[in-house]
Amino acid sequence: MNRPVTFSTKIAIALLLSALTLRASASEVAILRNGFTIRHERRALVGNTTRLFLSTVDETSFIDVPTAEIDRFEPDLTPPDPPPAPAVEKTQAGVVLPPSAPAAAANLPAPHSTMNVADAVSAASDRYRLDPDLVNSVIRAESGFNPRAVSRKGAQGLMQLMPETASKLGVPNAFDPQANVDGGTRYLRELLERYNFDMIKALAAYNAGTKRVEQYHGVPPYQETRAYVSSIVRDFNRKKLAQQKAAQAAQPKTVAKTKPATRPAAPGKKTGPASATQTVAKRTNPPSGN
Q1: Calculated CA dihedral for residues 251, 254, 256, 262, nearest 10 degrees
Q2: What value does the mean pLDDT take over residues 26-52?
Q3: Which residue has the higher pLDDT, 57 or 145?
Q4: Rounded to whole angstroms, how far apart are CA atoms 269 and 53?
Q5: How far is residue 138's CA from residue 160's CA, in Å, rounded to a whole number?
Q6: From 90-94, 131-135, 183-187, 251-255, the region with the lowest mean pLDDT
């Protein structure tokens, strides 16, 4: 005989489903064999690669990691409920000077160098041994490539350097594209070294500060910071995917023009989406004295 479903039974079933849903979507930390750690919302197998999604709603914010290089997964113990919004080093990245400060806009110093942004990024990336695509993605998120961008907290220039940070980095004029990019790239390199080349932690620290990253052992639970990190990773992945498609499109043309080889050609350099093992920064110290 079928027994009627009581109200208490319905509540119990709802609680069970809720618990299963929370467990299935709970954040994890991937521990890699090389010591990297990557916090993610969910994961999926893609061939021999594990795709780590940084957001529950954005399918394009992910990092591909070779499955063989993942040692284990652990639950993310970051407190789920953030405290009241703290004072961070700067507010929303890339905020242009507000209309309420026309005097400051009129007094912005003119850039000293004539080097364009592309050349500045190329020079700084080479000097501090970073992937220029990563530096460009940071600039895009910070200022939208506006060398005169100023945040409401006073962060300045292409890579949104706070005055005290610019001073420590030896940047006399944060509105000089060459000096700003050089200082911002150097700071990003220092953060990568500080966090054992964990790109996610370094980007979070660039936005919210090192104290917050260390307080929460990773990306702080602030909407702004998580959106900031996701936007940079998404843009970086987009560039690498485009490079990969371009290389694949060019491959048949190369094969058609060459004679059949007796041995298979050596595999090309990897240009796939951002992964924890992709060379965004070489583990060597930057040149001293700069």
Answers
A1: -100
A2: 79
A3: 145
A4: 24
A5: 10
A6: 90-94
The candidate with the shortest Cα–Cα distance to 136, out of 151, 152, 153, 119, is 119
Residue 190: active-site member: no
Q: Is the pLDDT of residue 100 over 60?
A: no
Dmax over CA atoms of the chain, in Å, equals: 87
Angle between helices 177-194 and 117-128 (to 10 degrees): 30
Residue in 142, 164, 193, 224 annotated catalytic: 142
| Mean pLDDT (whole number) for 222-251 | 90
Q: Could you give the CA distance from residue 92 to residue 157 in angstroms, rounded to a whole number?
A: 14
Residues 6+ apart with CB under 8 A from 146: 94, 96, 158
Question: What is the spatial distance between Cα 170 and Cα 174, in angstroms, rounded to a whole number?
Answer: 10
The C-alpha angle with vertex 200 and arms to 194 and 205, in degrees rounded to 5, equals 55
Instruction: Sort strands 62-66 and 49-53 into parallel, antiparallel or unpaired.
Output: antiparallel
pLDDT range class, residue 63, cuts 50, 70, 90: confident
d(CA 236, CA 141): 11
Domains and CATH numbers, the chain: 20-75 (2.30.30.100), 102-226 (1.10.530.10)
- Rounded to two decimals, the pTM is 0.57
